[in-house]
Amino acid sequence: MCSLNKKLTLFDYMVGEFVKWHKEKVCCSDISDNEVLKTLKLTRCMKLLYFTCLASVGKDNGNYKGLFRTFNTFLAYQRGPVEENVYNNRKFLFRYRFDGEFLQKRENPLGEILPNSNLEEYNQEKKLIDKAIGDLKNIPKFPMNDTDALVDLSHNLKLWKESIAFSYPLLPTRFESELKREKELFDKKCANL
């Protein structure tokens, strides 16, 4: 599976999990997915993607990077980290389409392009996503539904601050030492929410 296709397939899956999480959090399982998606603007999705990747750090057997192994091109935008490949190719998501400010469920999904040879790898990554989102859900005051609070949280982490300060847009998520430091700071900030 090509790297971009893998990112889009997994992000597409993640968006579905964010919709379920939103429904759990606001106690409204009868609300339609498209109603929830109207609240999941792209900025919020990008922050949730970043924090999901951060929650996965150190959780993948034998690989400290977790989901940053796949989502590896985070840039420092004004409103926090953005995964450049996902952001620039969001119109190619399989089950969702970008409609100006937010995503909507496609009436006719494009279908996931998953070669059988990569199905096991894809399922392992999905399990890692599920575990990371589960860890975020267990943070009592994690601001899942508050875009501004998510942006503020990302602005209080070292990788974004350093990238903005040095006008170097790519966050150094390829270095385990940087990820370890970012994860420790994230855990500390979340404990104080």
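the 2nd protein, sequnce then structure:
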Amino acid sequence: MNCSGQRTKVLARQIARVANGGGATNTARFFIKNPSVLLHLTIEIFARNPSDKGQAQTYTGETWTLTAQADRDGSAVPTNAILTAQSLPDSYEASTGVKMMRGSVALADVHEDGVIYEVQCTWEPGQPGMGQEELDRLFSECELTADAGNVTVNITGG
């Protein structure tokens, strides 16, 4: 997504989709890179069923966690927990200096076929008066990826 000239960057990823009637338990994982404390980051995690237009999603005990990551020789190494077992839907406003975060969503006993789980990240300037050139550079370094290279995790069970 080219954000040149924009004051907000939004990335969204589908991290799981319930297939074959659901009823299974699985974990979907994702990675977020927040390149600078100069950016304000909001993370939202939710589920939706595209066939239930306008209907509120029913949750069955799904939770998510967020862990700080440390870069050691190019590989992400888990460090401290930021959030533990928060119920969905949920959001988190990152106000730390953590640049890399690993998240996971525990999908327990999901029964609705077609439900899609998504993570959405919104980055905005954390300070008034930030120049557009600096903002564009920082936005170019923002990342949100789902494990397995953004491939949807199909949950099958029964």
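The domain at 9-152 is CATH 2.60.120 (Jelly Rolls). DSSP finds two helices and ten strands in the chain.
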